[in-house]
Amino acid sequence: MLGCVRIATVRQMAEVITAEDADGRSYVRRAMNRLAELGLSETNGKAGRHPIWNLTPAGQKALADGNELPSRPKAGTGAKAVKAGFGPHGVAVTDMILAYGGRKHLTDWQVEVNHAIKETGLSLNTDAVLALPTKTSEVRLFELDNGTMSQARLAREVWDYERYAGHRVWEGARGTIGNTFPFWQRHRYTRSQTFPRLHVVLAGKEERLLDNRLKALADDVKGIAVGVWVNTLPWLQRGEPWYEIGVDDPYRRRERYPEPAGR
Q1: pLDDT tens digit sequence for 58-112
Q2: Separation in Å, CA 93 to CA 22, 41, 213
Q3: Which residues of the chain form beta strands (DSSP E)?
Q4: Is residue 144 within 8 Å of residue 201, measured between CB atoms?
Q5: How far apart are CA 129 and CA 150, in angstroms?
Q6: What is the four-CA torsion angle of 61, 62, 64, 69, rounded to 10 degrees?
Q7: pTM: predicted TM-score of the whole model, two decimal places
Q8: Strands 243-246, 197-202: parallel, antiparallel or unpaired by DSSP?
Q9: Which of 22, 132, 153, 257 is 20 to 30 A away from residue 175, measured at CA?
Q10: Nearest to 97 by CA among 137, 63, 49, 141
Q11: How many helices and strands (H and E) does the chain possess?
């Protein structure tokens, strides 16, 4: 689990590896302490009173050597994020993954996935990406707001996904007419037919305030040309439905963003 989500508490790990009607926290706590003695796991901070666990570089290497997960050579252990004070956010991201059914397809998740376009300077760090093993390589993007950023900044981050989706690249031999293609489809999600849907999950505040934040975000991104669904973490954990606040529209994106010049 830690190889996929990077950081988690004993409660979260017990939720994954024990039966739904059982409390396996004591078992997990003993197991993590044993792994720590072997130098494979460690704690670098807390979420409330609960230690946050992550693998050490040796733990990651042992996991990779065992071929338990797809190779992720650039993935960090999560220790730096916890030491920098982002532990509670990372724990909330793990809760979001578990609430979305992460227990069923845990190895198909990646966290802190960078989406960058060098030519424009745009760089996004998506909190979590779910790549389901289907014929069409279905991908879903997830952003979690833990109530620490302003409403305006949250809206800008969502609009950045439209800017990322709207960027096109020119392809063709020198001296030919060539053609333009979406950057993401050529260089990132090459098997996807549509731009991945963005899921925004709101957390870190009372449910009443989260409801207000959801409504404000819907107003702030009105007219966006990528698929955006929003929910709150408490509602997601109760299995309540998502709200669609943005619709994928590649034709409108193409009108909004300039075509790259040919060579």
Answers
A1: 988 888 787 766 666 566 788 888 888 888 999 999 999 999 987 788 888 999 9
A2: 23, 20, 18
A3: 7-8, 41-47, 50-55, 109-117, 122-131, 139-145, 168-171, 179-182, 197-202, 228-232, 243-246
A4: yes
A5: 23
A6: -130
A7: 0.90
A8: unpaired
A9: 257
A10: 141
A11: 11, 11
